[in-house]
Each structure stands twice: as C-alpha cells, then as structure tokens.
Design a protein that fits this description.
By secondary structure, the protein is an alpha+beta fold. The protein has 5 helices and 20 strands.
Amino acid sequence: MRKVMWIVALAALAWCGWWWVASTGLRSAVQTWFDARQADGWQAELREVDGGGFPLTLHAGLRDIALADPQAGLAIQTEALDISAPAWWPGDVVVTLDDDPILVASPLGRSLLTMADGVMAMNLHPGTTLELEALGWTAGPWQVNDQDGLQMQANDLTLTMEQTDGAQYALTASADTFAPGAPIRSNLRLPDNFPRAFDSLQLRADVTFDQSWDRRALDQRRPQPRIIELHLVEAIWGDLKFNLTADLTVDATGVPAGTVAIQAENWRKMLDMSETAGLLPTQLRSQAEGVLQALAGASGNESTLDVELSIRDGAIRLGFIPLAPAPRLILR
C-alpha cells in the first residue's frame, strides 16, 4: 500500500512539474511570437499574459492587444483574448474571443466586430513544424459597425479548414440569416419590403496548396493555392439566386486556368443593384446587359443566366471570346 502511495505521489509530482513547464512554455511562446512580429516590422503590443488552468488545462490570458501587419494593411485591437489547450497535448488550441467590440482596420476602412461566443479552434499535428490538421471559427450572433452604423449582421458564423490529404484542405463557410445593414440597403436602393436577410449564404471547396499550412506560414511565406475545386458558392436573397462552381489549376504566378459555371436568377436586378452601388460603371451597363442577355437567351430563359466560362491564357472566355482578364490568385 505504501508503495502504491509513493507511486501516486511521484506521478502527481511529475504531472505538476510537466504542467508548470508546459504552462510557462505557452506563455513564453505567446510573448516570443509578439516579439518576433515586432522584429518583422509589425505593431505588436501586449500589456500582459497571465496563466492558469491547473491541473488539466494550459491557459494564457492576453490583455490589451494591438496587432498591425503593414504589408497586408490589416490591424486588430482587442481588450482580451484567451488561449487554452489540454495539458497532455498543447497542439489542440482553443482561442476565445472577447465579447466586447474588436477594432478591425484595413485598406477598406475601420470597423467594429462584435460577436457572442466567438471561438477559434486549431488542431496541430505533433512535430516541430506544427502542421495544421484543422482550423475552425464559430460564433453566435455577430455584427459589424462602422462610422455609418450597422453594416452587416447574422445569427451565427461557421468557418472551417480541415486537412484531407497532405497540402489539400476542405473549406466551408456559412452565415445563417446574414443581413446587410441600413447603409448597404440604402446604397442598393432596396425597397422596404425587400427581404431583410439572405435565405442562404454558404461556400464549400477543396483547395490544394503548394505546401501544407504550418509554422512557416507565419515565419516565412503563405502557402499558395494550386488546385481549387469550388463545389458551391451560393447566395439566395429574396428572388435573387446566385450559384457558382469552379474547377481550376493555378500556376506559380497565380494565374488560374479551368472552368467556372455560373447560375443567376433575376440577373437584371443584380445588374441594377451593382450599378446603383457603384460596382458597375454606368457607361458599361448597356454593354454588360447585352452580353448577359445573349448568354441568358442561349440557356432558354432570359431571366436566368446559366453559363460555363473557361479561363485560359490569362483571360476569362466564353468559348473563344475573351470577356475579361483572369484575376491573380495570390495569398499575401
């Protein structure tokens, strides 16, 4: 009996030692990461990192955070961020976001993101490279505000990225009852009786990158997409329905090649909204409508666009007719 008690006591002591080492290492890794970002020219400010979670959890509470990447032009400020992981494998990390507004600044402007129960979960493979196995972001009701007021909101948010084979990842995104705010509705000149929220807004895709996502994505370069299988992009808003699928390969310079299939119901109203919002120059409206009307007529229903486009030689084409330059797909 005494031997068993000694074994239990030694095991408990060893576990306490491991937890202290791992907990200290987690907080040290956070501080080291911020220091490294500062060395890279970022703004990376952090008031304090506290610990806790004994005996089964490693915890790091970050307070008063300010991050800005000058190359991407993206900045984030938040009062709190909590990182936790099971003590037996720190590579399964859960990041709990602050329920208070988070300031997000980009080349598009400054806005406040507020979300309830915002959680980011990351699973890493064991090893020094910390290869990404899965990444997810879920939240309850959320909204984005700027100086003009409420810009958008939804009842939930789901973003996932799951490794399926080597450098191939399955991506999903959805937001239930996504609703643009009053400024966007006003810019689009939507009538008061137009539906407030989207009936569906979702994405499903498989993307193969030139290398797996791991610690090099932060320290060196972002993995770049090489094969994109876009199974579904769907947006349904009232009587406006849009679906897109694609099968693309991307070369080393970011130029895609392959096919894109587009379905759009009530495409003329979509053109009206694009022109009203300034996304489609007025001088190009008649030209764009003429092309789309011809495409819709070819499908047998002039109110519905159902067409497959090809992308090759750096251009988007309908058959042999070039329509527009192909975008470069490069992750900065």
